Amino acid sequence: MQILFLSHYFPPEVNAPATRTFEHCVRWVAAGHEVIVVTCNPNCPDGVLFPGHRNRWRRQTDEVHGIRLLRVWTYLAPNAGFVRRILNYISYMIAATWTCLWIKRPDVVVATSPQFFCGWTGVLVSKLRRTPLVLEIRDIWPESIVAVGAMRKGILLRLLETLEKWMYRAADHVVAVGNGYRDNIMQKVDLGDRCTVITNGVDVGSFQAVETEESLDEQWNLFGRFTCFYIGTIGMAHGLQVVIRAAKLLQAKGRQDICFCVVGDGAQRMTLEQETIQAGMQDVVIFTGRVPNDRIPSLLRRADACLVHLRKTDLFSTVIPSKIFETMAMQCPIIMGVEGEALRIVTEAQAAIPMTPESAEELTFAVERLADEAQLQQQLGENGRRYVAEHFDRNRLAAKYLELLEEVSGKPGSIKE
User: Fold this and answer.
1) Are residues 153 and 228 in the same domain?
2) Per-residue pLDDT, 173
3) DSSP 8-state secondary structure symbol assigned to residue 46
4) Would you put residue 15 in left (φ > 0), alpha (ψ -120 to 50) or beta?
């Protein structure tokens, strides 16, 4: 097959959609298929181009592990603010659609959403090229931006909700990353058997022989301290004020042996970092900034525990953060501040201590318990790796996805696990 994949994000960007897209595509190429990815020039989350890249009007062609990569011009904008981000999304839709008119007609189009207009790019390309569309849904948009207070209810929201339903109906098949997403979609549009769940996962083998970077303790002053890491986007949805509140509780208890490392970047980072400095706790809550994706395994190896957290809202109970799979693969115990299906997974794995989202008291209890019970820490880590290897191996998930693409396109093939 020739597979055309539309994604707003792609490595060297380090977010979950970039990683998921790359890891699936590279396996499809290894199976003998031609894969073309149409994406932006890397600039997420700051809206600043990564070194070595240029945002040219003319598309730029590259090859990454056999994947043919077409990077198109977009209006650059940071991952904050509404109007500029919408302009960024729409510019991608226009540029990517135009680019797809001038390449060989694919056998199947895959478009991953959010961002929402990337999904609509898939609809447009599918119709213009008369090619079947598989629409991948990783978040329920626009509901998710309402849930974090980035948009109010009104005429614009109703228009976007209408476009959302049209987008689902226009797809030949919809791939959801979790059962909660599928249920949400099916409540809005009855797709029958045209909706399949293919979760995120992890390449377990790549997380086996990872060593801790010895410089981390010195760089971030972690010597002799139990360290709970948060690794990922620092955005409105993540509710990381809870970390600062928990740090204050630990400080009041005299627990100088426990600290937090917040690794990553996003719209809320500067605000939270300023709050930490004002509270005089910059040695307890350490903001490291963004790190390259290939360093994440060594960070997880160093972590004594990893916090996975989203704000307490019903919509986020459908979310399955992809970081849980990498964390379990590295035998790192999880403090789970997400409800719903994600909590069910880590509970079934016996790999986490649950906490109510946004509860500083429960986060404090969890880190103290893990800091004081080394055997529990080890057992949760071992349970997690065993479970994720059995149920969420990336090779098997990529094979399942490819079988679906073959069915939708009408072109059978094969992939080796």
Assistant:
1) no
2) 97
3) T
4) beta
Residues 302/286, Cβ–Cβ less than 8 Å:
no
Exposure string of 203-226, with b = 16+ CB inside 10 Å and e = fewer, is bbeebeebeeeeebeeebebeebb
DSSP code of 136?
A: E
What's the pLDDT score for residue 213? 65
Count CB-CB contacts under 10 A for residue 306: 27
DSSP letter for 41, please: P
3-state SS of 348-416 is: HHCCEEECCCCCHHHHHHHHHHHHHCHHHHHHHHHHHHHHHHHHCEHHHHHHHHHHHHHHHHCCCCCCC
Rounded CA gap, 343 and 355, in Å?
10
- Among 341, 412, 409, residue whose Cα is nearest residue 110: 409
pLDDT digits (tens, 9 = 90+) for 46-76: 888 999 899 988 889 999 999 999 999 999 9
The pLDDT, as a whole number, for residue 149 is 59
139 and 37 in a single domain? The answer is yes
The model's pLDDT over 245-278, given as tens digits with 9 standing for 90+, comes to 999 999 999 999 999 999 988 888 999 999 999 9
Which two structure tokens, joined as six digits, stand for 171? 């797809």
What is the span of the domain harbouring residue 53?
2-201+393-409
Q: pLDDT at position 217, please?
A: 80
Query: With 0-12 CB in 10 A as exposed, 13-18 as middle and 19+ as buried, what is 301?
Result: middle
Residue 91 placed within a domain: yes
Dist CA 138 CA 359 (whole Å): 26
DSSP 161-216: HHHHHHHHHH-SEEEESSHHHHHHHHHHS--TT-EEE----B-GGGGSSPPPPTHH
Q: How far is CA 417 from CA 31, 65, 119, 203, 400, in A?
A: 10, 18, 29, 11, 10
**247 and 380 co-located in one domain:** yes
- The alpha carbon torsion through 87, 130, 11, 325 (nearest 10 deg) reads 110
Show the beta-strand stretches assigned E in 253-359: 258-263, 285-289, 305-309, 334-337, 352-354
Residue 415 placed within a domain: no
pLDDT at 146: 60
pLDDT at res. 75 = 94
Regions of the chain with pLDDT less than 50? 414-417
Q: For residues 166 and 119, is the Cβ–Cβ distance under 8 A?
A: no
Which residue in 170, 171, 193 sits closest to 182, CA to CA? 193
